[in-house]
Amino acid sequence: MSRQILKRYLSRPEQLQKNKYFKYLEKWIFAPNLWHFNRRTTARAIGVGLFIAFIPIPAHMLLAILAAMWTRSNLPMCISAVWFNNPLTMVPIYFFNYKVGAWLLGSPMSTVGFQVTWQWLRIELLAIWQPFLLGSVLMGALAGFFGAILTYFLWCLDVYQSWRVRKRKRAAI
User: Fold this and answer.
1) How far apart are CA 39 and CA 48, in angstroms?
2) According to the model, what pLDDT value does residue 134 have?
3) Nearest to residue 30, comparing CAs of 20, 42, 9, 16?
4) How far is Cα 46 from Cα 79, in angstroms, rounded to an integer?
5) Cα separation of 48 and 41, whole Å?
6) Contact criterion met (CB below 8 Å) for 130 and 102
7) Which tens digit of pLDDT belongs to each residue from 103-147?
8) What is the C-alpha to C-alpha distance for residues 158 and 168, in angstroms, rounded to an integer?
């Protein structure tokens, strides 16, 4: 979880400022605090990004940008955490969220056959939205909380280990 590794693979604001599409958003998106890597802003970004990833709404990345600006967390890490929910993981995550919500509400699990039609969305999704939304918010909050805590402690562990390595090198000299 080294800062150098994160900086190597994530975009830099200088690269994005050259893009003409970001010119109008420069005042908000390129604030220095949104691009600063430390354990607090990174852990906060992971927590916020994971919470957003579990919520069943479109435009996760746009919401992650707004949430990163609002919570003053690291923008690239918040967007990266949202990518936890991708086309490969979306179905299992949302199905698990529905199961958790149905269990909490005590409602029976309905066997919903998925179809990509407006009629299915209007009828079937309307019948399961309460347990699905409850499970999504609860699991998003738990994933965000534990993701932030884990990121914070892994960052502290990395700093502690680098201190120990430096101390050993100094003792060897």
Assistant:
1) 14
2) 93
3) 16
4) 9
5) 10
6) no
7) 998 888 776 666 667 777 777 777 788 888 999 999 999 999 999
8) 15
d(Cα 163, Cα 173) in Å, to the nearest integer?
A: 16
The pLDDT, as a whole number, for residue 153 is 94
Tokens of 138: 């609860």
Q: Can you read off the two tokens belonging to residue 13? A: 């604001």
Give me the torsion for CA of 93, 94, 96, 100, rounded to 10°.
Answer: 130
Amino acid type, 35: W
Does residue 42 contact residue 74 with C-beta atoms inside 8 Å? Answer: yes
72-111 CB burial, b ≥16 within 10 A, e <16: ebbbbbbbbbbebbeeeeeeebbeebbebbbeeeeeeeee
Cβ–Cβ under 8 Å, residues 85 and 54: yes
Predicted model pTM = 0.76
Q: Which amino acid would we find at residue 65?
A: I
Closest CA to 140 of 45, 42, 58, 47: 47
